[in-house]
Amino acid sequence: MGFIQNDTSNVLVDTVLTDIGRQFLARNDGSFSITKFALADDEVDYTLIQKFGRTLGKYKIETNTPVFEAITNQSYAMKYKLISVSNPNLLRLPKLKLQGDGVSSTGKIVSVGNTTLKRVSVTVYQDIQDESSINIELQDQSFIVELDNKFVELLQATPDHIDRLQRASYVLNRDAGQTPLGGSKVTLEIATKAILESQFQVYGSRNNKNLISTFVKVSGVQSGSVYEFEIQVNKTS
């Protein structure tokens, strides 16, 4: 993380290791080595460019935008990572959408049960507006899926990592075939775990202790697109 100190124009950098990085460093066997890094623009308000124009808007972003404090949880550290694309005429980026079993009309909530309806199959796919196809450089070849390991899991997949908050991360290859616009897709077989009555009492909704809400985050590795949706686990379904 870095920011410009206006009174001196110095660039100050605040760097921390994520929880995974600390685990590797704690091994103390010489295997810890930083080989890659990522940049993100989570803090940037691009409406400033629409409001003030490219030149003045860019200046206001560079001089006035506060930067988030560096945090160690990799699930929240960078949401909108920057990508490199060779096409100088690229105007629009693809986004991710959701369809499948138990998906609400808004595409933001997936309903699943804890007794008989314990499994759903959903598909996350790339889509783009006002374009005839998705640039080949932005076609995701793999996806990162993050979810709460206390309540749900992906069938036929093994987590690459589970952090201290029980947030599981999976890396999945894209499905075979493409969408009509040339985008990629990935199918998620989501199942509820054995959730105890005591967990429903602790984590259940304030107004309905038969319902637990948890969230899934899907990120396209090549496009940088992120999609988050809610899973509602019903104890009686």
How would you concisely characterize the structure shown here?
With 237 residues, the chain is α+β, with helices and mostly antiparallel strands.
Describe the structure.
This protein is of the alpha+beta class. It folds into two domains: about 1-75, no CATH class; about 95-235, Immunoglobulins (Immunoglobulin-like), CATH 2.60.40. Helices cover about 15% and strands about 30% of the residues. The protein is built from five helices and twelve strands. The protein has helices at about 20-25, 45-50, 55-65, 75, 195-205; strands spanning about 1-5, 10-15, 95-100, 110-115, 120-125, 140-150, 150-155, 160, 165-175, 185-190, 210-220, 225-235. The strands form three sheets. A six-stranded mixed β-sheet has the order 4-12-11-6-9-8, with no helix packed on it. Strands 3-5-10-7 form a four-stranded antiparallel β-sheet, with no helix packed on it. Strands 1-2 form a two-stranded antiparallel ribbon. The termini are far apart.
Instruction: Describe the strand arrangement of the main beta sheet, using strand numbers.
Output: 4-12-11-6-9-8
Query: How many domains, in number, for the residues?
Result: 2
Strand content: 25-35%
Total count of strands: 12
Total number of helices: 5
CATH fold name of the largest domain: Immunoglobulin-like
What structural class is derived from the secondary structure elements? Answer: alpha+beta
Mean pLDDT: 88
Which second-level CATH architecture of the largest domain applies?
A: Sandwich
Q: Determine the fraction of residues in helical runs and give it as a percent range.
A: 10-25%
Distance between the termini: 45 Å
Query: Strand count, sense and closure of the main sheet?
Result: 6 strands, mixed
